């Protein structure tokens, strides 16, 4: 089956309906044996130093995986550097399929984008709806994993992050992925409420490799991973277009903040870590986030896929001391 690269979450039901395998390029970049080397390779090819490391990592990842000949690139609702990424991949012989989330969440515009994607892959609504039912069964297991994280403390913040983020492509095999999630659920054991600090993590998944590990070592626990949770499509709707309209990440910050504020209250969070990727336009939204949220916010910035540096650890320590 053909592998289709994706630059972020898209209506993956369309790809599965066509009998193809979606591959989230972010996931295979960050889990590569040496992701930092992939970033450096893109810079040697000519990518500027002051461009997001995720974009550079995706570029090299596509070229290193020659079985991926087509990439669905999100041109609106994700990264502002994606256009140039598309062009640099195009001259390397990769076919680019654009997809855009309408900024104002317009139902008809979003439906048109999904139908254009369906046209590319030669599938119809009936086939796509069938795949939604298939994937929703898997998503239900991940929703339960998320609930066990914040209700029972029985799933770690890292596992919560990991299995939710993998819902962007279900690791290319939804049924096998469901078995992995089931195994985690079976091993989870409820823990009594302790004096841990309950944190929320908002923003794109961290490029640092040991953030969750460090937080738990310091007596804090991430019980809400905002964007990762959105990848699981935690919405009660049978309408595929509405599902991707309710998905908050591609749209404006105020739509995201409604979801974040509701989860802060429901999950009884003490504070928020806002992660901002270096050179990303979303960093500007930090000033809105700090103004609108009613709990303390620590903003962390990451550049390359490395472990936490001493300065960042000191800032985390000081933030946790404030929350105690």
- Strand arrangement in the largest pleated sheet: 2-1-3-4
Biggest beta-sheet profile? 4 strands, parallel
- Overall morphology: globular
What is the CA–CA distance across the termini? 52 Å
- Please report the total strand number as a whole number: 8
Oligomer: single chain
Search tags:
alpha/beta; 4-stranded parallel beta sheet
Describe this protein's structure.
By secondary structure, the protein is of the alpha/beta class. Strand 5, helix 10 and strand 6 form a beta-alpha-beta unit. The N and C termini lie far apart (52 Å). The protein has helices at residues 12-17, 25-30, 35-45, 53-64, 82-90, 107-121, 125-152, 157-165, 174-187, 211-217, 226-230, 240-246, 253-266, 286-292, 310-323; strands spanning 3-6, 21-24, 68-76, 95-100, 197-202, 220-225, 271-277, 297-302. It is globular and about 55 Å long. 51% of the residues lie in helices and 15% in strands. The strands form two sheets. Strands 2-1-3-4 form a four-stranded parallel β-sheet, sandwiched between helices. A four-stranded parallel β-sheet has the order 6-5-7-8, with helices on both faces. Helix 3 crosses helix 4, helix 6 (107-121) packs across helix 12 (240-246) and helix 7 packs parallel to helix 9 (174-187). It contains 15 helices and eight strands.
Write the SSE topology:
Layout: E1 3-6, H1 12-17, E2 21-24, H2 25-30, H3 35-45, H4 53-64, E3 68-76, H5 82-90, E4 95-100, H6 107-121, H7 125-152, H8 157-165, H9 174-187, E5 197-202, H10 211-217, E6 220-225, H11 226-230, H12 240-246, H13 253-266, E7 271-277, H14 286-292, E8 297-302, H15 310-323
Parallel strand pairs: 1-2, 1-3, 3-4, 5-6, 5-7, 7-8
Helix pairs in contact: 3-4, 4-5, 6-12, 7-8, 7-9
């Amino acid at each position: 089956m053909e592998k289709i690269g994706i630059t972020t979450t898209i209506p993956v039901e369309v790809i599965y309906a066509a009998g193809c395998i979606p591959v989230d390029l972010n996931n295979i970049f960050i889990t590569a044996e040496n992701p930092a080397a992939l970033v450096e390779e893109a810079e040697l090819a000519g990518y500027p130093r002051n461009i997001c490391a995720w974009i550079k990592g995706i570029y090299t990842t596509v070229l290193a995986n020659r079985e991926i000949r087509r990439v669905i690139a999100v041109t609106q609702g994700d990264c502002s550097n994606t256009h140039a990424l598309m062009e640099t991949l195009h001259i390397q012989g990769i076919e680019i399929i654009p997809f855009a989330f309408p900024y104002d969440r317009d139902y008809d515009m979003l439906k048109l984008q999904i139908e254009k994607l369906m046209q590319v892959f030669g599938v119809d609504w009936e086939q796509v709806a069938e795949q939604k039912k298939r994937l929703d069964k898997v998503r239900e297991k991940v929703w339960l994993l998320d609930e066990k994280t914040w209700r029972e403390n029985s799933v770690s913040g890292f596992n919560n992050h990991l299995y939710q983020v993998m819902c962007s492509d279900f690791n290319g095999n939804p049924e096998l992925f469901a078995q992995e999630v089931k195994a985690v659920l079976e091993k989870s054991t409820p823990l009594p409420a302790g004096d841990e600090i309950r944190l929320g993590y908002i923003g794109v998944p961290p490029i640092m490799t040991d953030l969750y590990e460090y937080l738990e070592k310091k007596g804090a626990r991430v019980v809400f991973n905002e964007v990762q949770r959105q990848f699981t499509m935690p919405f009660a709707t049978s309408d595929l277009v509405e599902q991707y309209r309710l998905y908050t990440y591609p749209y404006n910050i105020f739509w995201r903040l409604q979801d974040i504020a509701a989860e802060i209250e429901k999950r009884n969070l003490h504070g928020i870590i806002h992660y901002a990727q270096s050179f990303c336009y979303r960093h500007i939204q930090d000033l809105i986030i700090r103004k609108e949220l009613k709990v303390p916010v620590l903003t962390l910035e990451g550049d390359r896929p490395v472990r936490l540096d001493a300065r960042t650890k000191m800032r985390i320590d000081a933030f946790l001391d404030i929350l105690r």
